[in-house]
Specification:
Elements (H helix, E strand, L loop, with lengths): L1 H18 L4 E5 L3 H14 L3 E7 L7 H9 L10 E6 L1 H8 L5 H23 L2 E5 L4 H4 L8 H4 L14 E5 L7 H10 L4 H4 L19 H20 L8 E15 L2 E14 L7 E2 L4 H14 L3 E6 L13
Parallel strand pairs: 1-2, 1-4, 2-3, 4-5, 7-9
Antiparallel strand pairs: 6-7, 7-8
The structure holds xanthosine-5'-monophosphate (XMP).
Xanthosine-5'-monophosphate binds next to loops.
Organism: Faecalibacterium longum
Subunit structure: Homodimer.
Protein name: GMP synthase [glutamine-hydrolyzing]
């Protein structure tokens, strides 16, 4: 697509000009927008860019490894940047211990992100630019999850601390729609699993575990979710479904395993189709896919003895469970 080619080229040139020999700081979440932003800046200014990626312990299985493979030292894309991966897992788990209320969980996760990012920024010192992956739908405040700011306190890397010391904001994706951002990502050589990623909320698995979040529960939901994603891809349905994930309900129920009675967790599977994420429909999932996933989850993931499929649309449900 010549238009995108020139978009990337023109923007890389424009960024070079604007940034000059300045230093740029970027919070990288591994989502589509921040990844394309980081790739574009990497191409334009290389080592003048520092990307901070925070592992809050609430990422999906292999997510950290995937981001490090693309942007970290020795990456296959030739991105020569300063890449900082902060292991903040213990901090988050400590803060989240004993907290069950959804809005409090969201607040804690959002605030802790700001704290971690501030600490990193302080170590880096004054930067000239702070880069943000704002895209057009964010600007007009519609589109992806825009409405739920009212219902749920939203958190993503767009909401950065105002205490970070920088001169100017740089937002090269401001005029792009989501599909244009993805196309730009492809032009920049980002892997398909990154550019075609489904939305993942800022608070991560923290809002896909109903009630208190613990490392053990995160491990369960990560494993169940990885199986769900793998089987959906195998069935060739990943392009048809807008968003899908496994969540951990806070419910224990009785089951049987051999001669033993079990009392274990129930996993909820969700898959929705939507055009704007403001309303959504539960996906009409083939029974054989559900059957395969269910038996894999109860067999492969410890402490799960029951699997539910969420048939609810939005409204009245939301896409996420919290
Ligand atoms: P809900 O659950 O409100 O979700 O129907 C609508 C869309 O927004 C995503 N979502 C978030 N995205 N930060 C984000 O960046 C958040 O805090 C957040 N909460 C929900 C959700 O995954 C869905 O795509």
């Amino acid at each position: 697509d010549w238009k995108m080619d020139s978009f990337v080229e023109n923007n890389v040139e424009a960024l070079k000009k604007r940034i000059g020999s300045g230093k740029v700081l970027c919070a990288l979440s591994g989502g589509v927008d921040s990844s394309v932003l980081a790739a574009m800046l990497a191409k334009a200014i290389g080592k003048q860019l520092t990307c901070v990626f925070v592992d809050h312990g609430l990422l999906r299985k292999n997510e950290k490894e995937e981001v490090c493979a693309v942007f970290g030292p020795g990456n296959a894309n030739g991105f020569d940047i300063n890449f900082i991966c902060v292991d903040a897992r213990d901090r988050y788990f400590a803060k989240l211990a004993g907290v069950a209320e959804p809005e409090r969980k969201r607040k804690i996760i959002g605030e802790e992100f700001i704290r971690v990012f501030e600490e990193q920024a302080k170590q880096i010192g004054k930067v000239d630019f702070l880069a943000q992956g704002t895209i057009y739908p964010d600007v007009v405040e519609s589109g992806l999850g825009g409405e739920s700011t009212v219902i749920k306190s939203h958190h993503n890397v767009g909401g950065l601390p105002d205490t970070v010391d920088f001169k100017e904001l740089v937002e090269p994706l401001r005029n792009l729609f989501k599909d244009e951002v993805r196309q730009a990502g492809r032009e920049l050589g980002l892997p398909e699993y990154l550019v075609s990623r489904q939305p993942f909320p800022g608070p991560g698995l923290g809002i896909r575990i109903i009630g208190e979040v613990t490392p053990e529960k995160v491990a369960i939901v990560q494993d169940a979710d990885a199986i769900w994603r793998e089987e959906i891809a195998k069935a060739g349905l990943d392009k048809e479904i807008s968003q899908y994930y496994a969540a951990l309900t806070n419910m224990h129920s009785v089951g049987v395993m051999g001669d033993e009675r079990t009392y274990d967790y129930a996993v909820a599977l969700r898959a929705v189709t939507t055009t704007d994420f403001m309303t959504a429909e539960s996906y009409n999932m083939p029974w054989d896919v559900l059957g395969t996933v269910t038996s894999r989850i109860v067999n492969e993931v410890k402490h799960v003895n029951r699997v539910f499929y969420d048939c609810t649309g939005k409204p009245p449900a939301t896409i996420e469970l919290e």
